[in-house]
Amino acid sequence: MEGMASTLLSGETYLLIPILLLLPFLFLIFKHIRKPFPSRFPPLPPGPYPWPIIGNLLHMGKKPHVALAQLGQAHGPLISLRLGTQLLIVGSSPAAATEILKIHDRLLCGRHVPHVSYAKSLDHNHLSLGWTFECNERWKFLRTLCRTELFAPKIIDAQTNPREKKVKEMVGFLCSKEGEVVRVREVVFATIFNFLGNIFVSEDFITFDGGEKDGSMSGLLRRIIELWTTPNISDLYPILGGFDLQGLNKKAMECFRRICATCQVMNYTIPKDSQVIVNVWAMGRDPAIWEDPLTFKPERFLNSDLDFKGNDFEFVPFGGGRRICPGLPMAVRQIHLTLASLIHKFEWSLPHNMQPNQLDMNEKFGLTLQKEHPLLLIPKLRM
Ligand code: HEM
Questions:
Q1: Where, by residue number, does the polypeptide cross the bilayer (predicted)?
Q2: Which of 132, 200, 275, 318 could serve as a FRET partner for 110 with CA atoms 20 to 30 Å apart?
């Protein structure tokens, strides 16, 4: 009997221990959640009903950009969701983007920084431009440095030699691979990454076939990108951040904008500390904005005044408002030269006589979207 009782007791104890351990967390989460969508006037933007504790996490799936675009079609151009306890607001029309990136930019320019991105030392966090929470004096100083010292027109001009040198090396590498299958993404990535490496620390980081010249640097970068795009429990339940449940020890920093004070967008309430994003992907595929949006027609821009520098809110690849990409002038020069060289110097064909319409164009979610299956092409030098 005694033996049975102690077995039962130990069985119960096994169950009790995790329950007792979970209780404080559940208490904190319930305390923080209050009502899923509290009644407000004006109301929160519409959205799918959130489940207790997890909110709308299950709605996101593996391709959150697609899920959010579909929710936008169902509920409207400005929607709200809960990811854990975190309120997420998503704009997916030019009107919503204009309000977020222009009209309310002063209040919405804060950025919600993922817990994984904090540096251990506060001093280091202050050195990071992209991961500064709010547009404070320090952020202004770093932006000024970018404008005057890193990306000013005369500096970009002065970088012509290293830029051309890296692109010539790329062309040389592709010539050596004539008739062979190459992974275009890796070649272009190495060209741009090494150009930045040469500009900032005078060295190449990576080889054209994906090998690492300086293992620590490119390895570190890949690891950081991986961490940024992996959901972190303390981003969904900020209240748990202090427990460091994933053992991140606040190593590193949010691609979302964060609200500093409650405001109104499109006649809806956007509460303080919401995360606010613009779904640029959804706008890029909206037939109300683009004729035949899914067809590759670069000529659609030929006789158009549409600008990509943050003034036309249906097309904001570099973002807009105060936090628009400061690297835009450098990126534009680099992309034009790289792409023009690839097209001008080579004829390209697909392996195994594949036709372009047979290509798998599925994308993979990440810090930036990529093709799920990298593009493989065969270069042939043009005569
Ligand atoms: C095709 C190339 C690039 C694209 C499409 C791009 C796009 C973007 C976007 C969408 C943002 C966020 C804007 C927002 O929050 O509204 C951003 C921010 C940023 N980008 Fe870029 N970018 C590119 C290249 C570069 C380069 C070459 C650099 C620097 C060498 C750079 C440095 C930054 C920094 C530091 C920020 C954060 C700015 C801030 O928070 O104030 N980007 N970029």
A1: 13-30
A2: 200
